[in-house]
Specification:
With about 90 residues, the chain is α/β, with parallel strands linked by helices. It is globular and about 30 Å long. Helix 1 packs parallel to helix 2 (about 50-65). The protein is about 45% helix and about 15% strand.
């Protein structure tokens, strides 16, 4: 991948971690310049629908700034959830 990783998802992203994770990711991405924001999901080992919600909110925030969100190295569980909720067009690489 030619793009630089902007941030990484934590090892666990369930309802309990959703709000603090979203806040941390937003702060990290806000400190960076424009262009696509690449989120690395390689460390994510446990997730539920909250992970999808966090990524959708990040996408919304970035879109308002004229930026895009790209998720790379997503675990199968996250990809399954994205498909289950029918948002693969919104989070295509997740």
């Amino acid at each position: 991948m030619s793009e630089t990783i902007a941030a990484r998802l934590p090892g666990r992203l369930t309802l309990e971690q959703a709000v603090p994770t979203l806040a941390q990711l937003r702060a990290t991405l806000q400190q960076q310049g424009g262009g696509p924001a690449v989120i690395d999901g390689a460390d994510l080992r446990e997730c539920d629908s909250s992970a999808v919600a966090v990524l959708l909110e990040l996408r919304r925030v970035l879109q308002a700034q004229g930026r895009t969100l790209q998720v790379c190295n997503s675990p199968q569980r996250l990809r399954d959830l994205v498909t289950l909720y029918g948002v693969q067009e919104l989070l295509p690489a997740a």
